[in-house]
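Homework help board

Subject: predicted structure for assignment chain

Our instructor gave us this sequence and asked us to write out the predicted structure in C-alpha cell form, then describe one feature. I got the C-alpha cells but I'm not sure how to describe them. Can anyone check?
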Amino acid sequence: MTETHGATQQQEHLFQQGAYLELIEVLNDVAVRTARQQTLLGLAYFRLGRMQDSRPLLAAALKAREPEAMVEWGNYLRAQGRFAEAQRYVMTPRPKGRGFSGQQAP
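My C-alpha cell output:
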C-alpha cells in the first residue's frame, strides 16, 4: 500500500469515507505512527465523540507540526469551550497585497 503524507491510501480512504471504527482498528495495530497517522486516529476518535482518546493523539501531531493537526487542535479546543485559546490555531492572518477583486487588502 502506498503512503501519502505519512499515511497509507487505505487509511486516508477509510477516514474520507467516515469508517472511523475501522480506521481506529487499523491504526491501533501500527507500532510507530507518523504524525499524519496520529492526526487521522485523533480525528477518528474526535468524530466519534471520544474526546479524551483524541486529545493525546492530536497534541502529539501538533507538536510534530502536522499541518492539519493545527486546525484540528483548534477545533478540539473549541469543542472544550476554550474559544480564545482555539483562535490561535483556527484563525490565520489575511495575506497582504491585492485581494481577489484586485483591490488593495487592508
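Reply (TA_rk): Your C-alpha cells look well-formed. For the description, you could write something like this. The radius of gyration is 16 Å. That's the kind of observation they're looking for.
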